[in-house]
Amino acid sequence: MTASVTAGSIAGFGPRLLAFLVDAVVCDLLALFSGRRPGDPVYGYIVLVAFLLIEFLFVGLAGQTPGMRVVGLAVVRANDGGRAALRWVLARTVLLAFVIPALWPDASGRPLHDRAAGTSTIRLR
User: What does the pLDDT look like over 11-63, one tens digit per residue?
Assistant: First the structure.
């Protein structure tokens, strides 16, 4: 079965990965601006905290991270396509910190962190 790639459909692994990579570059740049460098024990923590803050703040306020915006994705409530409540964005972000939920999709392609938060990451175009 071929996944649909129309606007409003569940985003597949490829677009999600591309959005993550864009966000990862942003987080690395933020960590570099902190004065830390790769190899410094604190550097990785700065990258992680930056990622989680970007995920929570941007998804909570705009429905998408910078990487999602570049790729054309957004996070919405699964039941009606509206903006997710901050408490569910926080739950989704905390689960993302554990990585594995993002890699565990169901048959529709929604990863565990989206299912647990009642959200879907969809294509905008």
Answer: 999 999 999 999 999 999 999 999 999 999 899 999 999 999 999 999 999 99
Cβ atoms of 31 and 50 within 8 Å: the answer is yes
CA 15 to chain centre: 11
Q: How many CB atoms are located within 10 Å of the residue 40 CB?
A: 13
Cβ-based neighbours of 16, under 8 Å, separated by 6 or more: 73, 102, 111, 121
Are 95 and 113 in contact by the 8 Å Cβ rule? The answer is yes
Instruction: Give me the residue label for tokens 């597949």.
Output: 12
Task: List beta partners, residue 95.
Answer: none
Confidence of residue 66 (pLDDT cuts 50, 70, 90): very high
Strands (E) across 1-125 are located at: 73-77, 119-123
* Eight-class DSSP state of 70: H
Distance CA 24, CA 69 (A): 14
